Amino acid sequence: MSRVLIPYATTEGQTAQIAEVIAGVLRERGHDADHVDLTKLGDTLPDGYHAVIIGASIHMGKHDKHALEFVRKNLDTLVRLPSAFFSVSLAAHGDRDEAEGYVDQFEEESGWRPDKIALFGGALLYTKYGFIKRHMMKKIAADKPGDLGLDLSRDYVYTEWDAVKRFAEHFAEQLETTPA
Q1: When you count CB atoms within 10 A of the terminal residue's CB, does the N or C end of the chain come out lower?
Q2: Domains, the chain, ranges and CATH?
């Protein structure tokens, strides 16, 4: 079976949770999967991996800079290995075109065209934000299409966990049917 690296860039932790679920599905399928925060991994892809799934969240209209720097630094390796990218944003919950635009921009800036791409809804973690960020995020949520929660006394998670699992299963199938 394959050894898969799942580096991710997260701000509030939703992307980390998604990476953990993906790693779990891959392990259930018999693969060795390591999910690691890009701020701890650094910018170099370690040796010994057969595939890579990179995850990044959107903040202020851009994917996390750590993910972009990692892809640029490791582009030669990423184009040779089976690879995937998952983007986490509020837009993925209510404005698919906007969410796809973020991925298009990431591909253009990085030069990377992963084999598979997934868009996952993120989370509004009002109870974990400070006063200013909580109210700023409420304003952003109110201006977005779709049904984003505005009650500041609770958190909202928009990630479709079944879609995350299907994405990981499809990637595993690709690994299992591709000759080494």
Answers
A1: C
A2: 3-122+158-177 (3.40.50.360), 124-157 (no CATH)
